[in-house]
Structures are given as C-alpha cells and as structure tokens.
Amino acid sequence: MTRRSANPYYVNMKKKRTGTIRGLLMSLFVTVIFAVVADYLSLPAYNIHSMETLFLFAFYFGLFAFLSVFFTGKFTKFAFGSLAVAGVIVGFVIVMSLLGSEILNADAFRNQINLTESGNFSDDFDLVTYANVPLVDYETAKQLGDKQMGKIQGLGSQYNINLDYTLISVLDNVYRVSPLDYQDLFKWFENKGEGIPGYVKVNVRDVNDVSLVTLDKGMIYSPSAFFDQDLLRHVRFTYRTEILDDFSFEIDNSGHPYYVISIIEPKIGFFSGWDAQGVIVVDAVTGSMNKYDLTSIPSWVDRVQPVSLAWFQVDNWGYYVNGWFNTIFGRKDVIQTTDGFNYISIEGQTYVFSGMTSAGADQSIVGFSLINLKTKAAFFYRVGGADETSAMSSAQGAVQHLGYVSTFPVLLNVEGEPSYFMSLKDQEGLVKMFALVSVTDYSVVGVGTTLVETKADYIKKLIEAGILESAVELEKSVSGVVTKIASAISGGDTQYYITLEGDTHLYVVPFNLSPETVLTQVGDTVSIHYYESTEKTIPAITFDNSAYDY
Predict the structure, then answer these.
(1) Could you tell me what percent of the chain has a pLDDT over 70?
(2) Beta bridge partners of 425
(3) pTM over 0.85
(4) Whether residue 5 has pLDDT greater than 70
(5) Cβ-based burial of 474 (10 A; exposed 0-12, middle 13-18, buried ≥19)
(6) Which of 383, 418, 420, 426 is the most exposed place for a label (fewest CB within 10 A)?
(7) CB count, 10 Å around CB of 332?
(8) Which CATH number fits domain 475-545: 3.40.50.11810, 2.60.120.260, 3.40.50.10380, 2.40.50.140?
(9) Which of 165, 377, 375, 169 is closest to 276 using CA atoms?
C-alpha cells in the first residue's frame, strides 16, 4: 500500500502550501518594513480622525494584497481580505466626509466662529492706536534680517534665515522673529552638536531696531534639522495621537526660543470643522515640551489658532449666511474676505485683519474683521468703502513720481474716520514715507515722512474734502514756556520736538514751518496751533516764538 506522503499529488500540494505561506510571510515582511520606514519619514498621527493616516493604512493593506499576489502567484483569500479592508477604509472616509460637508452642515460651519458685530466704527473701534501702528511689513523685515547675516563672519555659509518672520508681542514691543535654519544635511552634520546659534528679531515700529540674537546655547531642535533633532519627529515620539498644525517660532519675555504647535480636532462630523484645542510648547534648546489646553496656555504665547483655519471660519461665517444653496442660487447677503490680510498687535496679543467684501468682489468692502489668534475672539465692523488694494493704489498714486510701493494696510480710527495706514517703500524695500487713505473716499490721501507729518497732512485733506469739520472748528492753540526742545532728522527733513510747562503733550514742529524753531531755547515762550487730537504726540500747523519776529 502506497503511503500518502509518498503520493506525488500530496507532495505537490504540500510544496504549494509551503510556497503560499512563504509568499504571504514575505509579503507581510516587506509591508511591515515599508510601513516602518514610511512611519519614520511621514510621522502620521495615530488618530482615527486623521484622513491622511487612514489613507496610509488603506495603502498598507493594498500593498500587502499586491505583494501577496506577486510572491504567491495567485489571488489568495488573504489578498482578497486585505483589499476588502482597504476598500472599507476608503469608503468610510468618503462617506464620513460627505456627512460632514458644507452641503449638509452649512449652519454649523457658519456658527463655528462667533463674530461680535458693531455698526458704529467711530465709537467702537479704538483698538489700534496711531502711535503703535506697524511700520515694518513682512517683506521689509526679511530684507532687514538678511543684512544681519553678513555681520557675523561665516554664518551665511552654514545657515539661512527661516522665511516665517512670526509677528509676536514681547512686553511693550512688537517684533517679527525668525530662527536661523541649517542650509542642508551636511551643514546639520557639521553643527548639530552646538545647534542653531540664534534668531533674527525686527521691531516693527522701529526700522533701526534690528538684531541677530545669539544664544548662550544653540537651538538643537528645528524643522530644518534631521533625524531625531527634527522638530516634528521629536514631538511625534511623545505625542503620537495628536493632529498638529501651524508650527510657530516664538520667544518668551526673556528672549528664550520656543516652537508653539497647535493641536487641532474636527468639530463638525468626522473630518470637518477643524479647530485648535490646545498647543504643545517645545523648548528649541533643550527639547523639553509641555501640552496645554486652551485655559492654561502661557501668557507670552501669541499663536494658538492657525491662521488658515481661523480665516476659513470667517469666510464660512459670511458665506453661509443663508445656507449652502444660497451660495449657488441668489447669493443673497453673501460676503467674503478680501484677497489680502495683515497682522496687528492689540494690547499684547496678535490679531489678523482683513476687509470683507460682497460676493461680487467689486473692489469695495462692507466691513472688516479682526481675529485674536490666541483666544479666537472675533469682531466684525461694518464700514463701507474701498478695499485694501484700491487704497494701496491710491497711496502709490500720491507719490507716483517717486515710484514707491505700498505695504498692505492696517485700519485705524483717525478722528472718527475709518482710515487705511500703510508704509511706502522704495525699490530697495526701505521705508521712505507713510500714507493714510480714507476708507469712505479713497481719493483722500495724506502722506509724510514721519507719522505726525502724515497725520497732519491727512487731517488737512479730510477737512478740504468736507469729511471732517472745518479747520476753524478743529484748530486749537496753546501758549507756554518751553521745558524741553530737541531735533532729529527724519526722511531728510529736520523735526523739532517741544514740551511746554504744565502740558503733557509732545509737539512736533517741522523746520520748514518757521525759522524761529532753530533759535528757540528752553525758557522761551511760544505759541503753537494744531488740529484737535486725542494723541499725546501732536504735529504743529503754525509756530511762533514771542521773542522773535521772523
């Protein structure tokens, strides 16, 4: 009797079964190796709400199915099951995405951010003071920062300046800060022991206050570093389940560098309505990190809400005012943000600002919005007039003979009139002049080489256009004894700064206003005319020293 094991049929079956098992094990081994490498390189969040992670796992199952067919030479039940799991994951993502879409949840998307509305601009908008407007924009900060690199020999051959230039508040000043980055992998290998030596700090209110801050100990963890010193990888090894967004470089009040990383979660459906729920603060030098919810974030942190998410929510607030179908048919009352935005600091916190325009995008605004990037407190002010682009063109037209280019504007309340403020830069990117443009009538433009000169010219233009009261009603005068007088050159023009006895104001008198300014000394009695203002620093419109008659 022939033994079963000696039967060629059973021997062949055993070989096939062994080959199938070997092929499946090989497929599993290659898939696992690929997954480990992919995990180390892509660093996904192990979170069921992460669409990218679910698609990645679907790919793993699909890869295993393909490899099993390749190594076994047949479509096994394991390949079928693996493809089925991949299909279920993809189907789940598609279905849940549709259930969380704007079509079915327009009201939820509109109400995700609460904008406090105001219809009285002159009474309510007193947030950004004229004395604290940012003079240095992002592009100018980059140019000023680049010049700092050349001051330290050899630094430019190893590092670049990161292009972010985050706007932050530090004590009573507002800065744009940006760390140095390794140029490439080889530069990282050369310097990884000491780390990145410092960061650039630009005072947005003073073009002369620019510095490259060198640290006692270098920054070891950075987005430009590699392997375990890479910032995201360093954070991921501790926080595998958090979905992260918006890596912002900030410094605390003592100048120590940190990275602030937003933790986001979906609030509408399974994959929609993302919102910041906290932050992870990473010490760039030591690598120590802490996770904070929205109620316990350190006071010096400025960035919590990712700008892209906050702005998406503001757009939804204006877009879905009457539901989703209204955005397709009729578009009644639909408004949206304009093409640009700017950052401003208000009472030590960073806000993002932009105009809101009707759905037709007709170069006019119906108001503007402000969002606090720490608390997500949002405000909408109804103001009709020109949009930011029109105001920039008007400001450039006022100095077209000089060829200056305008920065993106900031909105101010100047004597109750909504006004765009912007810096005017030459072809080298240096700030040369300033401009104020009326929102309600963008043909009214005031320019000057100093802030006080610009405001004086603007008020004069507002009066001439009939937007403000007559000059006689606004004009004020003061006489007194000079207690201090100093001069400074600004934009090639000499300005005199004068204080009077018993008066808390600082009066700014241009040299070309009166030759008597040159002769004026402490103890002289002078008379100054000016336009009524709530500011402490006031530009003079006439000046007279009683001791002279010139």
Answers:
(1) 91
(2) 405, 431
(3) no
(4) no
(5) middle
(6) 426
(7) 11
(8) 2.40.50.140
(9) 375
